[in-house]
Amino acid sequence: IKPWSESEANEKLDxxxxxxxxxxxxxxxxxxxISFDNDGKIIISDKLSEEDREAFGVNExxxxxLTEDNKKHxxxxxEEKFNNK
Length: 85
Prior knowledge:
By secondary structure, this protein is mostly helical. The chain is built from four helices and two strands. The protein has a two-stranded antiparallel sheet with strand order 1-2.
């Protein structure tokens, strides 16, 4: 979730600092075009067009299961990486 290059040593080895996403969603997450709220509901950047959403298989109804430890790493992703501007 938090990039390796920006993580502290303990975060790099933290199994909660990552998700198993399909390649399409992983690329969008790493590109900060999607993120997730603390309930696991997807947040989609306004920069992702309707055509791209369809092509990448992204919709507003998507939800993932999170642990409490995932949430602290996700806060960093939303605040520092998510690209909605």
